[in-house]
Amino acid sequence: MHNKIQNASTRHILTVLLFCIAWYVISSSNNVIGKMVLNEFPFPMTVTMVQLCSIALYSGPFFNLWRIRKYQNISRGYYWRLIIPLALGKFLASVTSHISLWKVPVSYAHTVKATMPLFTVILTRLLFREKQPTLVYLSLVPIITGVAIATLTEISFDMVGLISALISTMGFSLQNIFSKKVLKDTGMHHLRLLHLLGKLALFMFLPIWVFVDSFKVIQHPAITGFDYRVIALLFTDGVLNWLQNVIAFNVLHLVTPLTYAVASASKRIFVIAVSLFILGNPVTWLNCAGMTMAIFGVLCYNRAKQVTRASETILPLTQNHRIKYEPLKGNLDPYYQGAMTSNPNGFASKRAEKQYTNLNPVPTNSLLSNGNVFPNGSTMTTTRLLFV
Fold first, then answer.
1. pLDDT confidence of residue 154
2. Is the C-alpha dihedral spanning 68, 169, 118, 260 positive or negative?
3. Closest by alpha carbon to 166, among 156, 181, 151?
4. Which is nearest to 101 in space by CA: 271, 285, 288, 286?
5. Where does the pLDDT of residue 113 fall: very low under 50, low under 70, confident under 90, or very high at 90 and above?
6. Crossing angle for the helix pair 190-209 and 84-103, nearest 10 degrees?
7. Burial label, 340 (beta-carbon count in 10 A; 0-12, 13-18, 19+)
């Protein structure tokens, strides 16, 4: 039995490890290829359209093949109240994310996205009046400081890129908050929610893409000249983005939210390192220090949330509670070998009471008393009781 449990635990750890490695490699590849596409084909809306098409087209057949349960019918009111805004937020966050990737280096865009905990704290406070402990607020300081240093020292800085990255981060933060609510309310499988949001976002985004980007894209040399390289990069970017979403949702399903947050922060470090190595965008030591501080702040935030949750699981200490003591009456007292208790104090006789008191003195510093013996029918004030 013990070996079976140990083997199951080992398999679970290996599965999570393999998923995380795949997630890191696919995510970094997706970002590098996305940057290469946007350098040669500067249409962030079209790149977003390709990714949404990938989610809508690939998810249905593959999820059916994997026998992922289908979601139940959702009321029209719930659709308009939560599902539609989520889909709207998805395509807005995706578009602004690609605009930031187009305007600034991958490393800087991901450094700015490290501000997600800041947006999460602000949004939960505004939307749900949720207050955070001081430790959580303090953990935001290195995130803000790190992003500020990285911004001031970024050689390829662009204001549109910065604003787009911030809007994208806020959008993804909102998605995280409300996606959890939808999953809890509907019992929908997380991958089915990804598919549903992808389809809705595609339908909502299609008219905007046709109006803004379609005519420019048709006239671009890469399309008129049928540039295989650009088309292949666009296709690969769409597939990698779909795989990244699927793997990320599976990692979240396999581990705790805190472990997922740490894994996500580690993934961001990996993406930044790979982009700097492959794309070779120039950075200074101070810029690297700002990036490192921002990521370190994310890890501090995750740790602060863990400490907060751990402290909330311990019940508070009881103070000044009045406990009513009622002595046993008419019952067998096992200590006195079956003697019937008949007197008001619960002992067979005064002598028995005296013997019991001498043999079992109550310490004056007892955890359960304030130095007082339980008197008949009286109350007493307890000291602190810790329940774990």
1. 92
2. positive
3. 151
4. 271
5. very high
6. 70
7. exposed
